[in-house]
Amino acid sequence: MTEGNGRLERAIDALKEPVQLGHTFDQRVMAEIESGPEPRAWAYRFWAILDWLKRGRPVSVSPLGGLALTAGIALVALLGRSMLESEGQSTPVAAAAYGSVVQFVIVEPAATAVSLVGDFNDWSAAANPMQRMAGNGVWSVTVPLTPGRYRYAFLVNGSIWLSDPSAPPTLDDEFGRPGSVVTIGEL
Amino acid sequence: MRPGASQLVSALALVAGINAAAGTASAQEPRLRDRLPAPTRIAIDAILDSAHAEGLPTEPLVDRALEGASKGAAPDRIMAAVQRLWGELRTARISLGLGSSAPEIVAGASALRAGADPDDLTRLRELRTRQSLTVASATLADLVAVGVPVDTAVAAVIALAEGAEDADYLAFRRNVERDIALGASPVSALGVRLGAAAAEALSNIDQASSPGPRRPRKP
Questions:
Q1: What is the layout of strands, in order, in the sheet containing A138-144?
Q2: What is the ipTM of this complex?
Q3: Which residue from A minimizes the CA distance to B181?
């Protein structure tokens, strides 16, 4: 056995000896814990900050600042709307919506042109021409609407009037053509 | 043109002419200019002036005239439709209160057209003092349009009046329509959905009154 091996065996023997804890060990551990940061303090602070953020407070904005804020909000809204339109994911049903942009849809595979006409566009066939979606006969258009109740109809090929099968019909047929109604709730 | 309607158009045109001569020239609605013949347009302008003076929204009247023109209706028919709507708007405004918004008045007029009594609108206003009545009144008209008897529709809308939000009314109407489309009779569809709404309201009350942990109230 070499000198090196002897040192190794002594070290192993020393490690095998049980550790003797002092009689003050528990007290020292508890003192260390109590002096450290309280685990729930961070959680409390997080909720306090969240509560502060949620709480209403008066804000004063200069006219120029207000203009900039309004422009920013309008930009975000426009970007959001254009994204919705580009993805075709606006309000799904024309019958009744609860927002400001409503998607009107009709299936007319044989149509060559479809327009949405109604109270919101002076019943003008030129105002809201509908777009045919890829090869399936579905025509669609989105229209921004303020809260209220609107009468409308689909004008197919410039001469055929159709109501919206997914919306309530108009109560009467005063002009001898079918129509539908859409109601937009308050935001 | 029917004789009665023709005389009406002439009389209204005469009133408009007298007003113009007296220096109270009636405003001309430019959107009607290329869409209606001159006598009809003048008569409708006179109605618009009167409606405006009464504090009524005039846009629905213009819309109705444009709808008639776009659909190729005869002038007397357009006049009759505009005049009928004028009366309904006036009644709706009185029933709902003079401070009612234009969308509320329009929706109230549609409820009257559906057969609701003016007192029903007043009752609805009393029950929903803080919310808009646009969707509630429109729901009433829409339920009648899909076949629900008017008395039943009125009862349902008023039953929901105190607790329902606009979204609840819209969902209620959609559900009734869906049930009807699936084959239910309008009355039974409405009854089932009204029962479901009542059960949900009771459940909410039970939850609110239970002694268990509650979500903190919003300030």
A1: A101-107, A138-144, A131-132
A2: 0.79
A3: A166
